[in-house]
């Protein structure tokens, strides 16, 4: 089986579908038409750009070039995760925490993958490393972003409850225990949903791609199982690191709540 | 042996309050009054080490900075005018339900309250429950911010009676209250916070 080739006509049909969504949004007064068109344009430019960049990178054998692409992906993920926050920290600490958490979570999961059958041959071969690390970075980005969003809004909203615990002698980790656990659960929900529905409701993207590319369904399933396990591992690691760093930053060495470190 | 027993604050200050220097002895109550927004609550928070500050605070010669913050706050407990709640169930707020029952009775609350949900309690009931919750930790210093503002005269009398027992046993009190009659009844010394500084005066 040969992979399906997407012709310019197919791309025009895709554009028409996007425009139809924008029109429907306008008719229903959803006020999302502009956002749909902008997101579609952004997606088109980004994917065409990355397609051509990958075409070039895959043709090279430079490990440095592979790492350079991963650094660019990591920077973009850091910006996306930080930029999604409605409650922000002073001095852009939410970007630093997001970046470090994504880096650690993705590095842990990807390096674990390299000890399994997902290890590319040769080691760090761009064709295998970039898609796998990119997929894991994308997932860890979502988990980190959700963790920060939930924790920052909880801490602001539940200040009275947290300070009540601190006033009665609780350590900073004990005082923020509930918001931290809630943030971690929130971060894992999308991945857990994805894992629960995998195979029953949806076929995950990578598996679909491999099936379309002609891989055996059983092999594609096995690959997907290993990948999803790495994704939830990376997500949990990234979310935990983000929650810990945020808690440490919003409290001080005396165990006091420091909401003055949020942007007013 | 303690050279300066009690709570001592020396040159305590933050951006809005201070410098404040005071000494409250065991079994003594110091009342602080002043216009709204003068920083009375902030001063209590500084003594409990809940906000960043400079200066020195000691309790029976133990410097606040020489022990972890949470240990200090177990000894020097701040009771805000509007208490916060981290769980909807009243019983989740008390570590020792047996001891809580005794204290609840002494402030005129039924022990059935422990099975209630916080949002079903009146403001006055919540105020008394918050007091009981904090007293279970047996703090040596009580920093009370308008502790009976939502209570009727009978309930206020019960709370004052219970606090008077603790005072006799050596507990230190700093009371912020707009209730002049209460500060006259309960406090031994009276201060006014003006322009961030404490001025000692007569009972209001």
TrEMBL record, chain A:
Against PANTHER family, the record matches this protein to: PROTEIN ALUMINUM SENSITIVE 3, UPF0014 INNER MEMBRANE PROTEIN YBBM-RELATED
Q: Main location per UniProt?
A: membrane
Transmembrane annotation, as ranges: 12-29, 36-57, 63-81, 93-116, 128-152, 225-248
Family according to the record:
Belongs to the UPF0014 family.
Mind telling me what this protein is named?
A: ABC transporter permease
Which keywords label this protein? Membrane, Transmembrane, Transmembrane helix
Q: How does it sit in the membrane?
A: Multi-pass membrane protein
Which InterPro entries does this chain map to? UPF0014_fam
Any Pfam family: UPF0014
Coiled coil stretches, renumbered: none
User: Where in the cell?
Assistant: Membrane
Automatic annotation (TrEMBL), chain B:
List the Pfam families hit by this protein, alphabetically: ABC_tran
**Which CDD domains is this protein grouped with?**
ABCC_MRP_Like
- Give the keywords, sorted: ATP-binding, Nucleotide-binding
User: Superkingdom of the source?
Assistant: Bacteria
Entry-linked PROSITE patterns: ABC_TRANSPORTER_2
Name a GO molecular-function annotation: ATP binding
User: Could you tell me which residue ranges the ABC transporter domain spans?
Assistant: 1-204
Segments spanning the bilayer are none
Protein name per its UniProtKB record: ATP-binding cassette domain-containing protein
């Amino acid at each position: 089986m040969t992979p399906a080739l997407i012709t310019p006509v197919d791309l025009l049909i895709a554009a028409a579908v996007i425009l139809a969504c924008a029109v429907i949004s306008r008719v229903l007064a959803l006020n999302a038409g502009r956002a749909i068109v902008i997101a579609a344009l952004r997606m088109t430019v980004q994917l065409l750009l990355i397609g051509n960049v990958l075409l070039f990178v895959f043709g090279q054998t430079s490990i440095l070039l592979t790492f350079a692409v991963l650094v660019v992906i990591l920077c973009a993920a850091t910006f996306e995760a930080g930029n999604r926050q409605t409650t922000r920290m002073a001095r852009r600490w939410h970007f630093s925490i997001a970046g470090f958490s994504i880096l650690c979570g993705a590095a842990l999961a990807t390096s674990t993958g390299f000890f399994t059958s997902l290890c590319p041959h040769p080691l760090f071969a761009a064709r295998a490393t970039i898609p796998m690390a990119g997929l894991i970075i994308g997932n860890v980005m979502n988990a980190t972003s959700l963790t920060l969003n939930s924790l920052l809004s909880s801490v602001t909203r539940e200040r009275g409850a947290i300070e009540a615990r601190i006033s009665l002698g609780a350590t900073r980790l004990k005082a923020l225990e509930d918001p931290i656990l809630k943030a971690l659960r929130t971060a894992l929900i999308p991945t857990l949903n994805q894992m629960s529905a995998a195979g029953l409701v949806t076929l995950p993207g990578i598996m679909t791609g491999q099936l379309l590319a002609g891989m055996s369904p059983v092999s594609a399933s096995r690959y997907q199982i290993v990948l999803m396990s790495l994704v939830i591992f990376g997500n949990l690691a990234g979310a935990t690191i983000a929650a810990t760093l945020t808690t440490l930053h919003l409290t001080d060495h005396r165990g006091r709540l420091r909401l003055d470190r949020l942007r007013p | 042996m303690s050279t300066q027993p009690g709570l001592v604050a020396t040159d305590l200050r933050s951006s809005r309050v201070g410098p404040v220097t005071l000494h409250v002895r065991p079994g003594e109550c110091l009342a602080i009054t002043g216009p709204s927004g003068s920083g009375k609550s902030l001063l209590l928070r500084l003594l409990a080490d809940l906000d960043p500050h400079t200066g020195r605070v000691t309790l029976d010669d133990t410097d606040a900075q020489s022990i972890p913050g949470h240990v200090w706050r177990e000894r020097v407990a701040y009771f805000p005018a509007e208490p916060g709640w981290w769980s909807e169930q009243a019983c989740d707020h008390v570590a020792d339900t047996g001891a809580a029952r005794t204290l609840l009775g002494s402030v005129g609350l039924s022990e059935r309250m422990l099975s209630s949900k916080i949002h079903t309690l009146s403001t006055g009931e919540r105020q008394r429950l918050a007091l009981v919750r904090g007293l279970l930790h047996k703090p040596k210093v009580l920093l009370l911010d308008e502790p009976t503002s939502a209570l009727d005269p009978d309930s206020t009398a019960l709370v004052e009676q219970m606090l008077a027992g603790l005072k006799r046993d050596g507990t230190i009190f700093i009371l912020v209250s707009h209730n002049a009659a209460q500060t006259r009844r309960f406090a031994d010394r009276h201060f006014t916070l003006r322009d961030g500084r404490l001025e000692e005066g007569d009972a209001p």
